[in-house]
Amino acid sequence: MLMGRRLAFDYGDVRIGVAVCDREGILATPLTTLQTHDLGLWAQIDVLLSEHEPIALYVGRPVHLSGTPSESTHKSEEFASQLRQRSKLEVRMIDERLSTVSSQRQLHEAGVDARTSKSMIDAASAVAILEFALQIEKSAQR
Known about the structure:
By secondary structure, the protein is of the alpha/beta class. It contains four helices and five strands. It has helices at about 40-50, 70-85, 100-110, 120-140, and strands at about 5-10, 15-20, 30-35, 55-60, 90-95.
């Protein structure tokens, strides 16, 4: 596996959760939550790219449980396309069917109320997306 940080984005209509991993690609951690309609969104993303200097970017691809695309799928793919153009980095889409559900469950088990911690859920979902992407990378090397 190549050395270097990776960033993952959980794109949503209201918020975008962001996660980062260490240079070794071992530990994914929540980084921040951005507001989707913030006028300074792309400037904030540019700062994250500059600060963390990722070698790859991942965007969650929400689909129905059956695997068919949804309206959210198209929105996240458009976000990924814009991210690819702005960053000039490889941007991979990662199936995120169960990332939000998994994140909500883990936060609930940790005693965090899902209704009052939506931004935490979005960042945790980005972590789940990044962890899955890292697993895919490691499996591809075997």
